[in-house]
Write a structure and sequence with these properties.
- The complex is a heterotrimer.
- By secondary structure, chain B is an alpha/beta fold.
- Chain B folds into 2 domains: about 230 residues, FAD/NAD(P)-binding domain; about 120 residues, FAD/NAD(P)-binding domain (3-Layer(bba) Sandwich), CATH 3.50.50.60.
- Chain B contains 9 helices and 19 strands.
- Chain C has 1 helix and 9 strands, in the order E-E-E-E-H-E-E-E-E-E.
- The two termini of chain C are about 25 Å apart.
- Classes of the chains: A alpha/beta, B alpha/beta, C mainly beta.
- Chains in contact: A-B, A-C, B-C.
Chain lengths: ~400, ~350, ~110
């Protein structure tokens, strides 16, 4: 390799987090290189739904971060040349029991005090959003600030805009080592050659643990599989995002909202539905720890379809045309891991988003850009520090 | 509620020439194979072939495709092979289960051996106006014509002068359509000389070194623009149908989903499940045959189907090593004969490369 | 426009069979019993089976074997039915989905 590569900042990972970080860094005039082992959005960002869901966030810093992120989406939709199919459609979370309603009500109160608009709806009031729901639905909560986006378009749009502003994107390029001398990142060794850089952002999703090992830091991120069914295209039939309270239960590990059915519990099954701009309905999803296996399984496909019919009986009339599975980068508490690491200057973590990557990408990119360039952030990210786990 | 699941010794996916021959060969070894096909009738693409086939008596030489298809389906019935029609295999999971959507509902099959004989799909390529109604695969035109008795248009332009393009162009003439020409980007035809001459004898111009630029029209094709590669001259054909005969692509999705190693061979249609000479894929218990294992002739597909069944029967213990070897020797010799001619040199090259790694 | 083949040199008489009537966007159309909807439409010169969701462009049968879904129409109220592999039935209602938005395509 004769050419000597160098970059002010190297971002490891071309998913939605890496792309958003590159975008915001480029906006501030930084020189950026994105290293992607496969292709843009080839991991979790390209195998997920498009929920930008605020009511599923934990009251507190998690919600505060999501609210900031939500505020950034409209301007991104405007600024990016790719149509990211941003749709501020609102989101509905349905309860199948009075216990679940009680829990949702308590959460709604906490979310409201955190600045989120949430409204509890009776089965009769649901009709305004969903003309037909399953017989067992006892009501739900509606959040008008929930929105949807096309995650692949978002990733590609951010990356394309970053590239336009001068970023270099190396696809099919693997990081082999990160050289640290005198407690500072100096070089990134890749299959495309060695890159001189004093700043490295790890946005490698489920690969973050492996990247962390290169600088002898344990990044506790595990792949969590989520399977999704895709139906045929239909004229608009879903006005807003829809999920079941069990989805939140499995996501945030809330005992009152966990599925009671044994098989559903095993699969970490929680109902989600959204209709994309092209008319397909995405039905989700599972939460399974099965290593790096991103295959779909017939058991989960069957379980997702049957579960969906509990909430929206009419999905029985939709043809499923394909299925896919993504591996979410899951942290021990389900919250992102953001910030610096001890003992290695110039290494930054932006990972572990655990299924909130799409929703939190804009604010993550913005905060990381601030952290890398100024050393401080406009929102306190201490609660997302790697060291909270010890 | 769990999906119903059924164990069985052998499932063949696809009731075309490869799949049906695999089932027949398996039956000879005492294995009752279950043949799945999403179509309403068996025989694969043979049922729309109305020309007489070449080859040897093993492959139904001198008969027309639909006659060969009917004979094979009857043979399966006599041998007690169950062919489940209108039954789409939606998935082939890493655990080996097949997900089926059929008249009985959705269910799983758990076979010990799986023969993937899923055939090929028509290749398409993008050009201005390619989505206009009236632009269709040559195979689609053949289905419309020979199975449903409907012309794809009154005046048709054929793109591609391989065997499929030449045969369908001739069949269009037979059925009463006009063929404005056959366009081919190469210097000559890869098809048989007899098919080329038959089209030329009918007065259909064959434009070598010409390429399709665009289709024009409103609610459907009204014209096609064709450019001479060497002179750059553009010719406008007033036609109401444009048929694409630019190759076939092996249907390798189920194999890929199962985790079979995928290889690439341009001469055989592109990406395909890697397999050895005996039609074993990289995954134990999964075999491949016919166009899904590389696009060739129907006669090749038949013998590949038999080879795959021999391997499966041997692996299942239904055929001893000596009998399997004897059968294999005969089938491989037949295949060598089918691939022996000068027009098959590229196939031989690709096969040698595939077998080497 | 009539694109039916009635006499075929190899297949012989192709004109036989019972006739049924289907209703395409409300208008009656004769069809041969058992043939796919797309064939009945094509025979009468109806090539556009739908208008694309994005640009409202005309689309028509491409593969005729149920693969490409370009021929998907609304049949008896059911959306996305592949008309190339769905046989006609007497009295069947076939509607063209989508809205035509694009004018003639010219290069």
């Amino acid at each position: 390799m004769s050419e000597i590569l160098s970059s002010e900042v190297v971002i490891v990972g071309g998913g939605v987090i890496g792309a958003a970080t590159a975008y915001f860094l480029c906006k501030e005039g930084a020189e950026v290189m994105v290293i992607e082992a496969d292709d843009l959005a080839s991991g979790a960002s390209g195998a997920c739904d498009g929920f930008v869901s605020l009511q599923t966030k934990m009251p507190g810093v998690h919600l505060a971060m999501a609210l900031e992120s939500a505020r950034l989406f409209p301007s991104l939709a405007e600024d990016l040349e790719v149509n990211i199919e941003y749709n501020p459609c609102g989101g509905l979370m349905l309860a199948t029991s009075q216990e679940q309603m009680k829990e949702l009500r308590a959460r709604a109160k906490a979310l409201k005090s955190g600045g989120l608009e949430v409204e509890m709806l009776s089965p009769a009031e649901l009709k305004e959003y969903l003309p037909e729901v399953g017989k067992g639905i006892k009501g739900g909560s509606f959040c008008p600030q929930d929105a949807q986006v096309n995650p692949i378009s978002l990733t590609l749009g951010l990356a394309q805009k970053a590239q336009e502003m001068g970023a270099t994107i190396l696809r099919g390029c693997q990081v082999e080592n990160i050289v640290v001398t005198n407690n500072r990142v100096r070089e990134v060794h890749t299959t495309a050659g060695n890159i001189h850089s004093r700043r490295v952002v790890c946005a490698a999703g489920i690969g973050s643990n492996q990247i962390g090992k290169m600088i002898i830091v344990d990044v506790p991120v595990l792949p969590q599989r989520g399977q999704i069914l895709v139906t045929e295209q239909r004229d608009p039939i879903l006005k807003c995002l829809v999920s079941g309270a069990e989805y939140l239960g499995t996501k945030a590990n809330i005992p009152e909202l966990l599925p009671t059915d044994e098989e559903a519990a095993k699969l970490g099954l929680g109902f989600t539905a959204e209709q994309t701009a092209s008319g397909n309905v995405l039905l989700g999803s599972t939460r399974e720890f099965v290593g790096f296996d991103s295959n779909t399984t017939p058991e989960a496909m069957n379980a997702i379809a049957r579960n969906a019919m509990r909430f929206l009986p009419w999905v029985e009339d939709l043809d499923v045309i394909r299925s896919f599975a993504g591996l979410r980068p899951c942290s021990p508490d389900g919250l992102p891991i953001l910030g610096t690491v001890k003992g290695v200057k110039g290494f930054y973590l932006a990972t572990g988003h655990s299924g909130d990557g799409v929703c939190l990408a804009p604010i993550t990119g913005k905060l990381l850009s601030e952290l890398v360039l100024d050393g401080e952030t406009s929102l306190d990210i201490e609660p997302f520090s790697l060291y909270r786990f010890k | 509620m769990a999906l119903p699941a059924y164990e069985c010794p052998m499932v063949v996916v696809g009731a075309g020439p490869a799949g049906l021959c695999a089932a027949l060969e398996a039956a000879e070894a005492g294995i009752r194979a279950l043949v799945m096909d999403e179509n309403e009738r068996g025989g694969g693409q043979l049922y729309k072939q109305i020309h007489r086939f070449f080859g040897s008596r093993h492959h139904g030489a001198g008969k027309r495709g639909f006659e060969i298809a009917a004979e094979m389906v009857e043979g399966c019935e006599r041998a007690g092979v169950e062919i489940r029609l209108s039954s789409a295999v939606l998935g082939c999971f890493p655990g080996g289960e097949l997900l089926v959507d059929g008249p009985e509902g959705v269910y799983l099959l758990r076979p010990q051996a799986t023969v993937l004989a899923t055939g090929a799909a028509e290749r398409c390529f993008p050009f201005a106006g390619w989505t206009l109604p009236g632009v269709m695969g040559a195979g689609a035109a053949q289905t419309l014509l020979n199975v449903h008795g409907v012309l794809p248009g009154k005046r048709v332009l054929m793109v591609g002068a391989g065997n499929v393009g030449l045969i369908v162009a001739y069949q269009l003439l037979q059925a009463g359509a006009e063929v404005a020409g056959v366009v081919e980007a190469e210097r000559g035809s890869r098809g048989y000389e007899v098919h080329l001459q038959r089209v030329r004898r009918e007065g259909v111009p064959v434009y070598f070194r010409h390429r399709l630029l665009a289709a024009e029209g409103d609610e459907g094709v009204e014209a096609a623009l064709v450019e001479s590669v060497d002179e750059g001259r553009v010719r406008r054909f007033r036609v109401d149908a444009l048929c694409l005969a630019v190759g076939l692509v092996p249907q390798a999705e189920l194999a890929a989903m199962r985790g079979c190693r995928i290889a690439y061979a341009d001469e055989l249609g592109g990406f395909l499940p890697w397999h050895d000479r005996e039609m074993r894929t990289s995954v134990p218990g999964v075999y491949v045959a016919g166009d899904a294992a590389g696009v060739e002739e129907a006669s090749v597909a038949m013998d590949e189907g038999r080879l795959a069944a021999v391997a499966a029967a041997e692996d299942l213990g239904a055929l001893d090593g000596a009998r399997a070897a004897a059968k294999r020797k005969e089938l491989l010799a037949r295949l060598e004969g089918l691939r022996g001619g000068p027009t098959a040199s590229h196939i031989r090259r690709a096969r040698a490369r595939l077998n080497a790694g | 426009m009539d694109l039916r083949v009635r006499r075929h040199p190899v297949l012989g008489d192709m004109g036989g069979g019972d006739e049924v009537t289907i209703f395409v966007d409300g208008r009656p159309l004769p069809a041969r019993a058992g043939e796919p909807i797309a064939a009945a439409l094509y025979a009468a010169g109806i090539r556009a089976t739908r208008y694309s969701r994005g640009k409202g462009e005309a689309r028509g049968p491409f593969c005729m074997v149920g693969r490409c879904t370009e021929c998907a129409m609304t049949v008896d109220g059911i959306e996305n039915v592949r008309t190339c592999v769905t046989p006609v039935r007497d009295g069947m209602r076939v509607d063209t989905p989508g809205v035509r938005r694009h004018g003639p395509a010219r290069v």
